[in-house]
Amino acid sequence: MTGYATAGWTEMFLCAGGAAAALSGLIFVGLSVNIRTVLEMERREGRNSMTGRALEALVALLIVLLVSIVALTPALSRGVLAAFILVNAAGSAISPCRAVYGSRGVSAPSAVKLMRLIPAGALTVALLAAGASLAAGHGGGLYWLPAAFVLAVTVAAVNAWVILVEVLR
């Protein structure tokens, strides 16, 4: 097993993909339970903070699911997988950037912002490291993906907690 070929990684991709799909479904259900409260809160605030968090959680989990599906494709070249991971890294950066842009002028505690942005930023960095090192053939390659997947689940869990529990406080 090596970090530069998908042989030997099947169980990890199957586990990660299945878990991400299940957790994505739970976020949809959780958001639907509080949808009135979430939409009312956003209407009062004049911004999409909670639906943005839901989207961020879903994107993080969908990245895990999509990378797992593509990585399980037989005879997929290393370059194609590296490019796909890098595209997903770029996609993972969109939501944290929107969160920073959307929070301008809002006086939220900096610790709250950091708890949201650090895991999301680390996810992007881990995906970039995985894609770039896989393409280069050195620097870790696929060994960065478990860290990225753990960060994605962390991003999703934190945002899901806010959507499900904190929104009702």
TrEMBL record:
It comes from the Bacteria. The keyword Membrane applies. The chain crosses the membrane at residues 12-33, 54-75, 81-102, 114-136, 142-164. Keywords: Membrane, Transmembrane, Transmembrane helix. This is Uncharacterized protein. It comes from Streptantibioticus parmotrematis. The lineage of its organism: Bacteria, Bacillati, Actinomycetota, Actinomycetes, Kitasatosporales.
